[in-house]
């Protein structure tokens, strides 16, 4: 696939990373990043019922619908897709970085671009923070505004914070 076929935003200060808007051609890439991250990382933070809930929430249908609505972006480093993030109105959602690339700043790169995009139209950005990502969001200036606890089919609980960051003026 040529770069002319996809919308590209180059990452400042980098000549090898770019954030592209996902198309239906990228469905399997997005799905793999999401599922691999949930399956590898989330069991360290959540019980099985919550992990299963996340996998169901990020179903094929939900991902395809988000791609169709132009909500999903992919981070490409060289020839490797390393992460994904989505925007929906003033919300950042579905932020995942493959486990082998975590802790190297890729999540921050994705967030930098998505926040800049959203702050052009909104005074605040919201997100639902999973336990693994909570500290990253705190460091970025987000603060919790709500706490949710969902009972899953297994009788396990999925807990997360809704967080907000206000645009700096």
From TrEMBL:
<dbReference type="GO" id="GO:0016747">
    <property type="term" value="F:acyltransferase activity, transferring groups other than amino-acyl groups"/>
</dbReference>
<feature type="domain" description="N-acetyltransferase">
    <location>
        <begin position="17"/>
        <end position="164"/>
    </location>
</feature>
<dbReference type="InterPro" id="IPR000182">
    <property type="entry name" value="GNAT_dom"/>
</dbReference>
<dbReference type="Pfam" id="PF13673">
    <property type="entry name" value="Acetyltransf_10"/>
</dbReference>
<dbReference type="InterPro" id="IPR052564">
    <property type="entry name" value="N-acetyltrans/Recomb-assoc"/>
</dbReference>
<protein>
    <recommendedName>
        <fullName>N-acetyltransferase domain-containing protein</fullName>
    </recommendedName>
</protein>
<dbReference type="InterPro" id="IPR016181">
    <property type="entry name" value="Acyl_CoA_acyltransferase"/>
</dbReference>
């Amino acid at each position: 696939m040529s770069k002319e076929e996809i919308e590209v935003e180059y990452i400042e200060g980098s000549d090898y990373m770019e954030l592209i808007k996902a198309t239906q051609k990228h469905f399997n890439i997005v799905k793999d990043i999401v599922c691999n991250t949930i399956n590898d990382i989330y069991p360290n933070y959540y019980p099985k019922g919550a992990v299963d809930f996340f996998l169901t929430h990020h179903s094929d249908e939900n991902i395809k619908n988000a791609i169709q609505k132009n909500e999903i972006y992919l981070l490409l480093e060289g020839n490797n897709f390393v992460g994904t993030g989505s925007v929906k109105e003033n919300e950042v959602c579905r932020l995942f970085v493959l486990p082998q690339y975590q802790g190297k700043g890729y999540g921050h790169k994705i967030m930098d671009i998505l926040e800049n995009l959203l702050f052009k139209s909104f005074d605040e950005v919201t997100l639902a923070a999973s336990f693994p990502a909570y500290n990253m969001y705190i460091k970025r200036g987000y603060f919790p505004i709500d706490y949710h606890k969902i009972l899953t089919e297994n009788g396990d609980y999925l807990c997360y914070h809704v967080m907000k960051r206000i645009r700096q003026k």
